[in-house]
Predict the 3D structure of the following.
Amino acid sequence: MTEILGARPHPAVDPGLAAWSCWTPALAPDASAVAFVSDRDGSPRVWIQPLGREAEAWPVDTGPEPAADVSWSPDAGRLAVLLVPGGGEHTQVWTVRPDGGDLRPLACPAGGSASFVRWTGRGGILLVAEVSAAGRTEAVLIDADTGGREVVAAGSLMHPVAMSRDQGRLLLRRGPRGVRRMYVADLPTGLPAGRPPSLSAGLSPSLPTGLPAGLPASPSPGLPTGLPAGLRGGAGSGLPGGGERPLLAELPGSTDHGALSPDGMTAYLLSDTGRDRAALIAVGGDGEAVVLAERPDAELDRFALSADGRRAVLLWNVRGRSELEVLETGTGAVRPLPPPPAEVVSSIRMSLDGGQAVLAAEGPGHPSHVLLCDLATGGYRRVAGAGPLGAPAGAEPVRFRARDGLELTGWLYRVPGVQAPAPFVVYLHGGPESQSRPTFTPLFRDLLAAGIGVFAPNVRGSSGFGRAFRDADNHALRFRAIDDVADCASELVRLGAADPARIACMGRSYGGYLTLAALVTHPGLFRVGVDVCGMADFATFYARTEPWIAAAAVSEYGHPTADRDLLRALSPLHSFDRLTAPLLVVHGAQDTNVPVHEAEQVLQAARAHGVPCDFLLFDDEGHEIRRSANRVTFVRNVVGWLGRHLTAPAPPRRSA
């Protein structure tokens, strides 16, 4: 076994590898500037770009830790910043003035994680989600000026989503992946603006515990009692008011995002309950639900509601590309916006007056950048970020049938100028409820420059194609998703794109798991494999991941006790006697989502079976590679490793 530890990057040749990106932009309340996160100086941090002519952007000093999100306070006096200490998974909420002064922590739970939801619109009050080390979430109102705190809801598998302007009504999401539900909670009097730091804890011990109605404690009947810590799923409502009311409770499906009208009487929900594709549904105070926007050819990816509640911008996922529409909530009128000047929009927020939207957008030839959209004219203006670099090859959409007849899709990146079958990488996304889309991916650019094509498929379980497709890999159906990977390789050969003797399989997170599973299920099909922070054994994953991640994963993968035999059969580590392909394993030492123990097990098992296995470890990264220098190291080592294996003559096949 060779370990690639502390490898240093070579000077970047492809400008895409050195290009900087911008994410999560937010407009100042007076629309005079935009704040965003960017890695333009090597590590993600907050920048502010004034919107006047020829004005220079400046970085906001939030310390040495990477930033992940930013939001302006309603009076523009402060920023809420999401920081990622050590590049790991335990995020924290801090506040700072736009000039970098008065940097202070607001939410840093010991051993846990925090994220901000939104400013409530009254003074400097911020709605925050805090997750403890044990996996219990608290919805907390925090006064950014004084540090005062009030807990307004708590429970497992819970996330606060929105709050009314008077802070008297709260929208909460509860439940595991794929079966989430929204609840409206009435708070007794709301939190007055500027309330002093002597805020009460807000938790009532007399309220009932247990799951809300309609959400069982286990994903299937007959589960044993005495579940492992963090997997009981109890909501433990803990509301200081009169409890919670479920929304869309009687319908199958999941509701993942939402917003409240200013008075809190209408909940706007992004949901696929009662339908296959996610739509925008409004639920009034009487509980009546009305579908405001729905498309048979697309899923609603996200939406942004104006501060006065009169307008929403809808972001649709249309077979992987983004389309935008404007909805007038009072009349229900919907009008399309012109196509954005990039394939994929990953973030959208509205100006305070509802006249503009600020977007983060990207494409294969354009790093993520900030666009300002005039909602009246539909005009777009790039206000921050690097310019287009040009795609080395177009992202070609592909549709084909899996062996059981299910339609699969993907994005094919052919090596420019090559007509004959070429070396290829099948690249599998994470999630599994994620999606391969035509985004800016430096790894793909460098692979193509090295003469290696890329196919980024959406196997069953991917998002963007409806609830039935997303759920088509749950539990024992995962064996079919593993076969989908083999069908992807067959399709590349059928198309004449790939040399069947020089196909690699690679994936990140769940895609890393799927890579390992495909290698041991279909030995000899792939020349080599690259596993980036993937799970190898569901038993050790459940035992070592964050408690809230484990609890949420039961509906997707199965229960570690009730489904022990199934999970063992699905765990590639227990079939490494069938592994024939050399491996490169990549992981971040700070990863608590998929702990590095998974990589260590892969290395040990591969070596025990005589399979070559190299290791690339990043000491200062977690589940994501956030720092530019580490990204260069990652891309250079992966491309070099694949190039050595895929361009050399095929070695004699080991017997399975």
Notes: The CA atoms of residues 326 and 335 lie 5 Å apart. The chain has ten helices and 37 strands. The first helix runs from residue 15 to 18. The two ends are 20 Å apart (CA to CA).
